[in-house]
Amino acid sequence: MNFTRWSARLPGTQRRAAARTEQTIPATPRTDGAVPAARAERRSDGVRMPHADGSGSGIDELPAREVLDRIPALVALVHGADHRLAHVNDAYVAAFGPRPVGEPARVALPELAELGLLPLLDQVLRSAKPRTVKSRKAPGGRSYTFTCTPVTLPLGGAAAGPEAGGGVLVFAADVTDHAEAAERLRASERAQRETAVTLQKSLLPQELEQPDDLRIAATYQPGGTEAAVGGDWYDVITLGGGRTALVIGDVMGRGVRAAAVMGQLRTAVRAYARLDLPPHEVLQLLDGLASEIDASQIATCVYAVHDPNEGSLVYSSAGHLPILVRDENGTIHRAEEPTGPPLGTGGWLHTSGSVPLGPGSTAVLYTDGLVERRSEDIDEGVASLERALAGATGTPQVVCDRLIRALGVTADHDDDVAVLVLQHPARTGPDADLFRNAALELLGGVEAAPRARAFATGVLASWRFSPELHDLGVLAAGELVANSLQHGTPPMRLRLRRTDRRLIIEVTDGDDHLPRRRRAEPADEAGRGIAIVATIASNWGTRRTPGGGKAVWCEFALPR
Predict the structure, then answer these.
(1) Do residues 288 and 265 make contact, with C-beta atoms less than 8 angstroms apart?
(2) Could you tell me the CA-to-CA distances from 44 to 25, 47, 48, 78, 365 in Å, in that order?
C-alpha cells in the first residue's frame, strides 16, 4: 500500500509511522486482488514484531522484572498483608542500596517507613485504588513523588513470592530539581512578603497618641502566609483644643506597592489634619492626591473628628465601611451616611456627617478584612460585627481582641485586618473633678473684656490651679477675647476646659477670618495679642467652625 498520497492527511507522528511501515514491509504481489497479510518480522535486536492479529507479541515474551529494571524511576514491588518485598529495580538499589527480598516492608524498606508511606500501602491494598504522595524528601536528600498502585501477583508469568494474591507497586519519580526550584520560589516569596510586612508596619503608628478625653487601641494583623500584604492603615492625630482626628483606610491591591501608597496617604492625612479642616475637606484634598500618586490605585478611607465639647463624632467616608458606635445603654448605631466613592476616583464632592459619642460610648473603625468573607455578603459580616460589639466590654485593647476572635480572624486569614477602637469613658467620683467645663457668652461692647477676665479669674480659682498658672490663664483669656472683640463678629463665646493633663482656653465668634501671628513694630498699638498667647501657652491654634465663624484656642500643660 502506498502511504505517500495519504501522508498529507495524517498527523505528523502518523505520517512518520506510516513511512517506516512502508519501508519495513516489502510489497507482495497480488494474486487475487486482496491485500496480502502482514508477516511477523524480527528486529535486529531480537524482539519479535507482532502479527496483524496481535499474535506473537514480543512484549508477552519479555519478563516483567526486565521491564521494571529498565525503568529509570525507583520501583519496588511488595505483596501480602505485611507488604513483603518481592522485587526492587536497579534504580532503587542505586538510590538506597540492596534490599532483602522476602522481608516485610518495615524491615526491607525503612526509607518508606521514615516517609510515613506504610499506612498508604495498607490503604492501597484495601481499596484497590492507586494513591500518590507528592514531593517527599527521602533519606539522602533527594525528593521523590511516590505513586502506589495495586497489582495482582504473580506478575508477567514470574512468581513474585511464595503466595499469589494482592500486591502494591511503589513507583518513585525523582523530583529533586522541581522541589528545589519550588523551595527557592517559596523563599523568594517569603522574602518579598517579609519586606512588605516590615514596610507596612514601619509606616503604621509605632505608638498611638492618647488624647485626654478618649481611650484608644488599635490592632493590625497581616494576612496569612499565602496572602500578600495589603495597604490597610490607621492613625490617631491630636488636633489641639481637646479635639482628636481618627483615620482608617485601605489601599486596594497587595504587596510593596500597596504599602508604599498607603504610607504616602497616611503622611498626607497627617499634614492635612494640621490644617484643622472639616472631615469632608480633608478627604477632598486626599482624593486629588491619590489620583496624582497612582491613577490606577484607589483607596477607601474614613476621617473622623471627636470634639468632647460637642459629644459627637463628625466624619466623612470615601467608600469605606460604616463606623459602629455602642452608646452607654448598649444600643448599636451604624454611621452609614453620607458616603462618597473611594479616593482616587475624582469628580465627587464629599460631605460630613455626625454620630453621637457621649460619655460611656464605644466606637469601632475597621477595614473590610474583618467582615468580608467569600461565602457571604459583606452586610452579613457587618451585622456579625454589630452583634459582637454589643457584647464586647472592657478596655479598648480587650474589645479589639474580642472582635477579632468573634469574627473568626486567625493567623492564616486571607486578608489584612485593621481595627481601631475608641472609648469616651463616663467619669465619676474623683476622676470627674479632673474634667471640668465652663463657658460664657460674650454680650455687649467694651465691657465684655473685663467680664471675661473676671469669669476666667473665678473659674480658674475654683479649679485650684497654682497662682502662676492662674495668672497665665487669665492673661491668655483676656488677649483672646480682646482679639475677638476687635476683629470678630457676634455671637462670641469664651470656653474654659480642664482635663487631667491640660487647661484649654477657647474663644469662638462669627467671623471666619483666621488670625495669624505677626511681628508688631515698636510703634504699633495692636498686633501683639496672638504673639503674647503663643509665647506663654504650650500650644495654640485656629480653625473654622462648621456653622460658620472661627475658634481660636490655646493650651497650658498641667504639672505632673
Answers:
(1) no
(2) 15, 8, 9, 35, 82
Phi-psi region for residue 244, left (φ > 0), alpha (ψ -120 to 50) or beta? beta
CA distances 240 to 10, 361, 481, 540, Å, are 85, 22, 19, 7
Question: Which of 136, 142, 86, 137 is CA-nearest to residue 109?
Answer: 86
Assess contact for 122 and 116: CB atoms under 8 A.
no
Distance CA(286)–CA(315), nearest Å, equals 14
266/205 Cα distance (integer angstroms): 10
- Between CA 346 and CA 318 the distance in angstroms is 11
Which neighbouring-strand residues pair with 116? none
- Those residues with Cβ within 8 angstroms of residue 502's Cβ, 6 or more apart along the chain or in another chain: 212, 538, 555, 556, 557, 558
Kindly give, in sequence order, each residue whose CB lies less than 8 Å from that of residue 176, ignoring residues fewer than 6 positions away. 141, 142, 143, 144
9-19 exposure pattern, b = at least 16 Cβ within 10 A, e = fewer: eeeeeebeebe
Q: Which of 283, 365, 269 is nearest to 316 (CA)?
A: 283
Smallest CA-to-CA distance from 320 within 296, 294, 347, 338 is with 338
Place of cell 508604599: 260
Three-state SS string across 170-190, please? Answer: EEEEECHHHHHHHHHHHHHHH
Kindly give the confidence (pLDDT) of every residue in the chain, 560 residues in length, as a single tens digit, with 9 standing for 90 and above. 343 433 444 444 444 444 444 444 444 444 444 434 433 344 444 444 444 444 444 445 557 777 777 788 899 999 888 899 988 998 999 899 999 999 999 999 999 988 989 999 999 999 999 999 998 888 888 899 999 999 886 544 444 444 446 899 999 999 999 988 988 988 887 787 777 777 777 778 888 888 999 999 999 887 765 555 678 899 999 998 999 999 999 988 777 788 788 889 999 999 999 988 999 999 999 998 988 887 778 899 999 999 988 889 999 999 999 999 999 999 999 998 778 899 988 778 899 999 999 999 999 999 999 998 888 889 999 999 999 999 898 999 999 999 999 998 887 787 889 999 999 998 887 778 888 999 999 987 778 889 999 999 999 999 999 999 999 999 999 999 998 988 889 999 999 999 999 999 999 999 988 887 776 666 555 667 888 999 999 999 999 888 889 999 999 999 87
CA dist., res. 356 & res. 326, Å (int) = 10
**Residue 326 burial (C-beta neighbours within 10 Å; 0-12, 13-18, 19+):** buried
Instruction: Tell me the three cell numbers of residue 492.
Output: 462670641
| Closest residue by Cα to residue 84 from 107, 65, 67 | 107
